[in-house]
Design brief:
mainly alpha; 1 helix; rod-shaped
């Protein structure tokens, strides 16, 4: 009887550790995804700003030429 209890306890502990590991990697993946999203947003904003600056510069030179 005692032996069975030990075996069950060991199985439960192993399952708990496994679930904890899974949860930790899931959290890590979520953080990585969030970081990637922020980096992508930053890149998009920079590109938009650059395009806007180029438009203004082109407009300026066009006005200067006329």
């Amino acid at each position: 009887k005692q032996r069975e209890i030990q075996i069950v306890n060991r199985q439960l502990k192993a399952r708990l550790l496994q679930e904890r590991r899974v949860a930790r990697t899931a959290a890590k993946d979520a953080r990585a995804k969030e970081r990637a999203n922020q980096a992508a947003e930053r890149r998009l904003r920079q590109q938009a700003r650059k395009a806007q600056q180029q438009r203004q510069k082109r407009l300026k030179t066009a006005l200067k030429g006329s």
